[in-house]
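Tutorial handout. Part one gives the primary structure; part two gives the three-dimensional structure as tokens.
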Amino acid sequence: MKKILLVDDDQNLCNLLSSYLVAFNFSVDSVDSIRNALAYIRKDCPDLIISDIMMQDLNGYDFIKLLRLNNLYIHVPVIFLTAKGMTSDRIKGYNLGCHAYLTKPFDPKELLAIIYNIFNQIYFLQKIALARNHKFVSNSKLLSTFDLTPREKNVLTLVLQGYMNKEIAISLDMSQRNVENYVSRLLHKTDTRNRVELIRLFLGYV
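Part two.
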């Protein structure tokens, strides 16, 4: 059962929305402030958060900024449900990383469709990641034939996961130039011409 956290100081809305979502087999809890939401998440991280923007003290924008700064919570999808309906408000929300933005009043059926869509996307991405890892592990014998160093294997793993050189450099704490050199070595050792051919070699893409 997926856990959803409602963050809104309108208790009537929380009660109505909670009852609606529970009817569709979701586990729902609600809090009335960002500080209470952060305290809740530290104890029991939800699968999805639905948050208002306009609240006392910290607001919804502050909330998503704090979530995106913590690697433990960066993966949690956030839906903004708010009366702030200006285009600039929506753009700000999306730029901060929200998955959807609904303005009040809203149709609960649309919210439900958004929730299902988000969970379906997450499920799809997880299946791709599992398939990639399985293929990578299944090609461990192939991997051993190229006599790669531990560092080259680390770089290769991230290349196969779709990371670009800058992201690999940050992840492995090295310069981008060094990453480029490692990628060039991988291409040379595997007799491939580019990253696409390298990925196809190990993941079996056609």
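Part three, for discussion. The radius of gyration is 22 Å. The mean pLDDT is 85.
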